[in-house]
Amino acid sequence: MKKDSTDAWSLRKLDTTVLVAKAEPFTCEVLGSLLKREGFDVVGRASKLDELISKIQTKKPECVITEVGLIGKEAKQLVDSLNEMKKRPKVVLYVNSQNAGDIANVLEADFSAYLHSEDELDELYLCLQSMSRERTYYSSCFKGLIQELGITEADSETLQMLKSLTKRERQVLYYMTQGLPGQEIAEKMNISYRTLATHKQNVTQKFCLDSGRMLLRQSLLIKRFLKAPQ
Q: What is the pTM of this model?
């Protein structure tokens, strides 16, 4: 039996303001027009990261729809700008990359939803409806991609751990997972062995570990979210 079209679309509309940002201006315009036609309040469009950040600050949308191709490796820059806002908007991210490092990077950003670039428009509507619940949304297609690449999404506890670490502490953990001895880690980071020991002690406390001997094991558990120092 065919569903009544009005009933079907009523589930897809949200009383919310949306900002659309995609690297390709034409694609951005098309998606914005489709959303607007179906009753979404599209308050702006952007095709560059700096333009996106500027419009987030001026338009103050409740939801931002963007993609890895636009934010590139600058997910942290976007997250920092979002955190400065009094009311942080939800972020729906389309992933159009096969690079495991890029994907791990945006997963760490803990956006509201992750979709695959090949997902149908209906998936976006379902996602927007589901975001009212306080949980991260992963489309089936996106889950298939990260499983294929050997990546798993970070749970809330892991994300809190990662966010508590400084850049230097992340570097220490990364080198530990590579099997480097302490002296070599200190040399690579151009710090003293004493400073290295202090970093390890701080991380041990942040992770609430009984002793530093457990630090390597903990580092290996979050290894996939630790990136090689640039």
A: 0.64
